[in-house]
Amino acid sequence: MLWRKPMNSARGWSVTATKSRRRRRKRPLGLLELYDRLFAAYGEQHWWPGETPFEVMVGAILTQNTAWTNVEKAITALREADALNPEALRTRPIDELAALIRPSGYFNAKARKLRAFGDYLAGYDDDIERLFASKPLDELREELLALHGVGPETADSMLLYAGNLPSFVIDAYTMRVLQRLGVIDADSKPSYDAVRAMFHESLPADVQVFNEYHALFVAHGKDVCKSRKPLCSDCVLVENCPAAEGFLREAPTR
Ligand code: SF4
Question: Domain range spanning residue 189?
């Protein structure tokens, strides 16, 4: 257990006011307890893949709408072509960049995003440390969000995993698990920023915890709380999950 803080599953904004009686019978998990349960089940995840902060930021762009294995292929190709540096992102022909990152999918669009990112870094003399030390987190986040091809998840991944700054990353796995657990209301479709704010209000601003928590959501969402046919009977959260009953009813008896 990392912290001893009261659970706060009853915050006012996007926490579920669940509709069914069945859901009310399940004790909702607070975010701290959820972290502890996931950590106890999966342990340290040792994220983020990437040898340097620059590489992590490139990876955050390339991973949009694709699996990390494809990103690794694209990064390897960039490295082997001596193009994994800000200068190359600015100066190599877009077609060449696109060909190198082809394994990551959407390669023409992503090549233009990498070009914009390379141009942006020129404003910091390609000094990533200087970039992350240049201004408060919220201002830096706004600056990143203004870049071509950088949305909230990409910006927060950059801040957290490259900048070591406490900016919680919300991804599809996180949303799915939280919705199924009834922590957020699937019907009201809370925004990315609303869900991120919930974590920021509920957790200490601890980079290591934010890092680990996001990785744990990915592990749980990939291996157990799958999009289709989640493995509820093997899930450490089943006692607190309002969605489990329906999935277990659908699952064939073993
Ligand atoms: S019990 Fe099932 S639906 Fe609920 S979190 Fe676990 S795997 Fe997901």
Answer: 21-43+169-250
DSSP structural state of residue 148: T
Number of domains in the chain: 2
Cβ 34 under 6 angstroms from ligand 1: no
Domain contains 14: no
CATH of the domain at 236: 1.10.1670.10
Q: How far is CA 57 from CA 42, 69, 196, 254, in A?
A: 26, 16, 20, 44
pLDDT digits (tens, 9 = 90+) for 115-135: 999 999 999 999 999 999 999
Q: pLDDT-derived band of residue 51, with 50, 70 and 90 as boundaries?
A: confident
- Ligand 1 centroid–CA 187 distance in Å is 18
Indicate yes or no: pTM above 0.85: yes
Tell me the CA–centroid distance for residue 227 and ligand 1, in Å. 10
